[in-house]
Amino acid sequence: MLTENEIGAIVVDAAIAVHRELGPGLLESVYETVLAHELRQRGLRAECQVPLDISYKGMVFEGAFRADIVVEQRVIIEVKSVETINKAHRKQLQTYLRLGDIRLGYILNFGAALMKDGIVRAVNRLVE
User: What digits encode the pLDDT tens for the residues 36-49?
Assistant: First the structure.
């Protein structure tokens, strides 16, 4: 079984490959679909628009939020196609990780001129 960090390395490599092929400026839904396909081609289970539940004081909110892509049920990917990633994007991912009890996540901004400048990694109690 791959670790979160090993999955993350594949995610980053796949994102760079997709960005190199398609370039910036397309809709987020296009990048989401193509990236999920690329991850599956690399042998990973990648699901799109995954509803995640949260619980609060004994109440369960089913499908409280949707993760753009969940890889191997262990890594959340939020796909963006914006000029720059802002603090709200970062906080959103951190909240998804905490509420979903997932240890690793990425914001992948396909709107960046260079993909390496559009990658934000976030952790939630991940042992490095």
Answer: 999 999 999 999 99
At 86, list the tokens. Answer: 């802002």
123 φ/ψ angles, rounded to the nearest 5 degrees: -125, 155
DSSP string, 15-48: HHHHHHHH-S-S-HHHHHHHHHHHHHHTT--EEE
Q: Which amino acid is at 46?
A: A
d(CA 110, CA 115): 6
| Helix/strand/coil for 6 | helix
Q: Name, in order, each residue with C-beta under 8 angstroms of 74's C-beta and a sequence gap of 6 or more.
A: 4, 7, 102, 103, 104
Regarding pTM above 0.70, the answer is: yes
Long-range pairs for 44-49: beta carbons < 8 A, 24 or more residues apart: 44/7, 44/10, 44/71, 44/72, 45/71, 45/72, 45/73, 46/70, 46/71, 46/72
